[in-house]
Specification:
The protein folds into two domains: about 5-35 and about 230-410, Glucose-6-phosphate isomerase like protein, domain 1 (Rossmann fold), CATH 3.40.50; about 50-220, Rossmann fold. Helix content is about 50%, strand content about 10%. It has helices at about 15-20, 20-35, 50, 55-70, 85-95, 120-130, 145-170, 180-190, 210-215, 220-235, 245-260, 275-290, 310-315, 355-370, 385-410, 420-430, 435-445, and strands at about 5, 75, 110, 135-140, 170-175, 190-195, 265-270, 295-300, 320-330, 375-380. Helix 5 (about 85-95) links the parallel strand 2 and strand 3. 5-phosphoarabinonic acid binds near residues 140 and 203.
Length: about 450
């Protein structure tokens, strides 16, 4: 099981202070359970893992099998919560050199609709030219510009390359049951489609078809992923004693640190494959917490890589940070350092050791150095990088986020701030219906 270690926060906030939050955390978790917290129409994620049925997973797997059979590449079109969970899990489980050593069994999983880079889209569509490719179009609102733009290009190309009939087999929509252009298009074209439940927001949706379908298409075991999340849901159930509930302890510790003046949480990993777990986590926490002038700023680093860049800042910059490390106890493979007769690099003292032993000592040495430098350290350890442990980690972070937002007193489940850029962009592009905004913005730019 996932292990949470908060002992290295002790020099900064005492265990007493953290434990002092136990009753508040319990009360907050009860409001999630009873559905009396702000944003209570978005609590579908809370018991999502244990509500997933084998029939539902079988249906996802059947769709994934079709895409795996018919396609050499599958493009996941989506942004924010509509792609980060899938990207994070797929990257964490894939070979680091997947794109070089494709086994021919799994289609390449590509992502689009998460930026408006013309070169990106040009290069993607060029890569797909004359390839058998499919598209998973993911948008809860069904109207997100970045995703809709990419989907329009991809749909056209797919139909031109393989014909409308085959395109119908390899384009899948994951969207709202009734609303939005993605729903209208899926129904009109007769695409296989999945519903994103009304009560599950984008950033909490990785265990819906939003994450499960792309992960299954990539060839990973979604049953194990869900089982890990289910076990974590049970382990952290409302009413669990504080000290046995890692999500509650994590939320309380973050809150104690935030209240003590630590305003930035840096999520660190020591496995390059976890880079996108950091991206997913930043979205989950940043978009949920950053409201009403409050919220920890979520940052992430890949270590030891970033010890040679951000390491300086973490060690000795402004002391407003704390660090949360995801540590993977056992790597999948074993690689020993060889001995070298000449020992020109002076590394013979490592001969016969596993690479991971060096990594673990780097991790421990960094933790000690950062604590000495004034950076409280939280450690989250998982046994290994597999579907089951990622499932645990996902639910742990989701619940920790739900609890902490309520400790802060913000609605975890909306994102009103995201609208500001869209309004300006539409006004600048002259979108019909935005005439007044266009006028106002043009006056501002004069
Ligand atoms: O977490 C969220 O709700 C957002 O990040 C959304 O996932 C993101 O904006 C994409 O929205 P949609 O799925 O409606 O295209």
């Amino acid at each position: 099981m996932l292990k949470l270690d908060i002992t290295k926060t002790a020099p900064f906030v005492s265990a007493e202070t953290i434990n002092g939050y136990a009753s508040r955390v319990a009360a907050v978790q009860k409001t999630l359970e009873l559905g009396t917290c702000p944003g209570n129409d978005f609590l579908g994620w809370l018991h999502l893992p244990t509500s997933i049925t084998p029939e539902f997973l079988a249906d996802i797997k059947a769709t994934a099998a079709t895409l795996r059979k018919e396609c050499d590449a599958v493009v996941v079109a989506g942004i924010g919560g509509s792609y980060l969970g899938a990207k994070a899990v797929i990257e964490a489980l894939s070979s680091s050199f997947e794109w070089l050593a494709r086994d021919g069994k799994s289609p390449a999983i590509l992502f689009a609709g998460n930026n408006i880079g013309e070169d990106y889209l040009y290069e993607l569509t060029s890569y797909l030219r004359n390839k058998r490719f499919g598209v998973i179009n993911i948008s809860k609102s069904g109207t997100t510009t970045e995703t809709a733009l990419a989907f329009r290009l991809l749909k056209k190309q797919c139909e031109e390359q393989c014909g409308k009939e085959v395109a119908k087999k390899v384009i899948v929509a994951i969207t709202d049951a009734k609303r939005g252009a993605a729903r209208t298009c899926a129904d009109k074209e007769g695409y296989k489609s999945y519903i994103i439940p009304d009560n599950v927001g984008g950033r909490f949706s990785v265990l819906t078809p939003v994450g499960l379908l792309p992960i299954a298409v990539a060839g990973f075991d979604i049953e194990q992923l869900v089982r890990g999340a289910q076990d974590m849901e049970r382990q952290t159930a409302e009413g669990t004693p504080f000290e046995n509930n890692p999500a509650a302890v994590y939320a309380a510790t973050r809150h104690a640190l935030y209240t003590s003046g630590k305003k930035i949480e840096i999520l660190a990993n020591y496995q390059p494959k976890l880079h996108y777990i950091g991206e997913w986590w930043k979205q989950l926490y940043g978009e949920s917490e950053g409201k009403d002038g409050k919220g920890l700023f979520p940052a992430s680093v890949d270590l030891t890589t970033d010890l040679h860049s951000m390491g300086q800042w973490i060690q000795a910059g402004e002391r407003t940070i704390f660090e949360t490390v995801i540590s993977v106890e056992a790597p999948k493979y074993s690689l020993l350092f060889p001995s070298d007769e000449e020992n020109l690099d002076g590394l013979n003292f490592l001969a016969g050791k596993r690479v991971d032993e060096v990594n673990k000592m780097a991790e421990l040495g960094t933790q000690l150095a950062h604590v000495d430098g004034g950076v409280p350290n939280i450690r989250i350890a998982i046994d290994c990088l597999d579907e089951y442990h990622l499932g645990q980690l996902i639910y742990f972070f989701e619940l920790g986020c739900g609890i902490h937002c309520n400790l802060l007193g913000v609605n975890a489940f909306n994102q009103p701030g995201v609208e500001a850029y869209k309004k300006n962009m539409f006004a600048l592009l002259g979108k019909p219906g935005y005439e007044k905004e266009t006028e106002a913005i043009q006056a501002r730019l004069k």
